[in-house]
Amino acid sequence: MMMTRIAPTALAIGFLFAAPSPQPASANGAAFFADPNRIAEDGTLYFGIVKDQKGTPVVGASVQIHVKGQNIEWVYQTTSLGRYRAIDLPKDTDPKLVEVVVQKPGLRIVSEDNRTRTVRPGLPVEINFVLGSSTTG
User: In CATH, what number is assigned to the domain containing residue 87?
Assistant: First the structure.
């Protein structure tokens, strides 16, 4: 009888220690917005996806975010899903002053899609990019 009580307790303790970290990686992007409160308090969220012309995510592209008139630049790398996410911009930053540029050797920006088109500081901004070959002809 005593073994029956210990086994469920030991199992529960095992699950407690085996629990995943609070912000696990997620293939579907669920962890992408893991803590929206932190984003709202600390800065403005800039995010998006970088793909090639076939729709394949571009891994390791350099995403540079610069605010016109400021001598500060933030640089990020796209993930294995082609995603980038930046929360470093102050929440009072005017989106009209923000420049986002994506670079990857051998590729150039073919199109840029600012899906949010926001003009209010502090709101999330989604900008997606399509890159194509930088060679001509």
Answer: 2.60.130.10
